[in-house]
Design a protein that fits this description.
This protein is an alpha/beta fold. Helix content is 48%, strand content 22%. It has helices at 5-17, 20-26, 31-45, 61-89, 105-122, 135-143, 181-184, 191-194, 207-217, 232-240, 250-258, 287-305; strands spanning 50-53, 56-59, 94-100, 127-133, 149-155, 163-170, 172-176, 188-189, 199-202, 227-229, 245-249, 263-267, 274-280. The protein has a six-stranded mixed beta sheet with strand order 8-12-7-11-9-10, sandwiched between helices. A five-stranded mixed beta sheet has the order 4-3-5-13-6. A hairpin with a 2-residue loop joins strand 1 (50-53) and strand 2 (56-59).
């Protein structure tokens, strides 16, 4: 036997108020509709549930037995609804946040890290779940709603999911350690000349690898680096130790160039401008993520003015 749960809800309210009219008012329905539903329920169960008296709708013995279960079920549902509303209205206290492995630590320190620090200080009860992935992986996670915020590096013209705030723009340069100075310093060469020597790149599947691979494909070169590394930091360190020629963020390379650990290799080919952007998932409302986004933007804007 399959009886609509709505029938039992109506039964509970009629029994509770001992009145068809009061139950109709509580349920925002009409008395004829309530009478019809109770009649249908009695037909389904094969017994009478109420007696109409001067004192109102009085439960029969069968109705009294049913009411015990209907009351328990209704109170359990109401308790569940209350908990759901509390959960819905309570600010979410967790933020999932991704940073692309292709973003240099110097970019992270400039506004991004101060913004995270300010947010964490103001919201000590919020759990920050930080991950590092490639830019394509982070964009996919923002698109499918599994990540709240992400810092990614892309070509300036690329379309991104959610909202986008541009933190900075940059171009890559070719750098190498001192072993390669006699070969390249003071010269302007073509990109094709580089591949007579070991090369270092971020791993295949990263945004940086894709950008460089596409650039080289346009001039007829298949990108096949000697060494693939997981982050910009690794690429710089490997180049400083003469393991090959790397193509990295010019701002990130500058301190090592000033210290004499690296030098820039000048090439005729032009690298495309890229951006470091903050993107946010708009599919799920998260007040903590909104606050973290605002904190990062505020600190980045402050850093830009200094």
């Amino acid at each position: 036997m399959s009886v609509s749960n709505e029938y039992y809800k109506v039964f509970y309210y009629v029994a509770r108020y001992k009145s068809f009219s009061k139950a109709a008012k509580a349920l925002l329905s009409s008395q004829p509709n309530i009478t019809r539903i109770i009649g249908n329920l009695e037909s389904e169960l094969g017994c009478k549930l109420f007696e109409r008296t001067n004192q109102g709708a009085v439960l029969t013995p069968a109705g009294e037995n049913l009411y015990k279960y209907a009351e328990a079920a209704q109170k359990a549902l109401e308790a569940g609804e209350t908990m759901v509303r509390r959960f819905r209205d309570q600010p979410i206290r967790e933020v999932s946040f991704g940073i692309s492995a292709g973003i240099s630590d110097s970019k992270i320190r400039l506004g991004i890290l101060p913004g995270i620090n300010a947010f964490a200080s103001a919201n000590p009860d919020v759990h920050l779940k930080m991950i590092t992935r490639s830019t394509p992986n982070l964009i996919e996670m923002i698109s499918d709603g599994s990540l709240n915020l992400a810092i990614v590096n892309t070509l300036k013209r690329d379309k991104l999911p959610g909202t986008r705030y541009t933190i900075s723009c940059f171009k890559d340069i070719l750098v190498a350690g001192n072993k390669y100075r006699p070969i390249f310093e003071g010269k302007t060469v073509n990109l094709s000349d580089i591949f007579n020597y070991p090369t270092i790149s971020l791993m295949q599947g990263s945004e940086t690898f894709t950008v460089h691979s596409n650039l080289l494909a346009n001039i007829g070169i298949t990108f096949n680096p000697t060494i693939e590394v997981p982050s910009m930091m690794h690429a710089k360190v490997f180049a400083e130790n003469n393991l090959g020629i790397a193509c990295i963020d010019s701002d990130y390379a500058l301190p090592s160039i000033r210290e004499g650990k690296l030098f820039e290799i000048t090439v005729n080919d032009v690298f495309p401008e890229r951006t470091v952007s903050l993107i946010k998932n708009e599919k799920e409302k998260n007040t903590a993520a909104d606050a973290l986004e605002a904190s990062i933007i505020s600190e980045v804007e402050r850093a830009k003015k200094e």
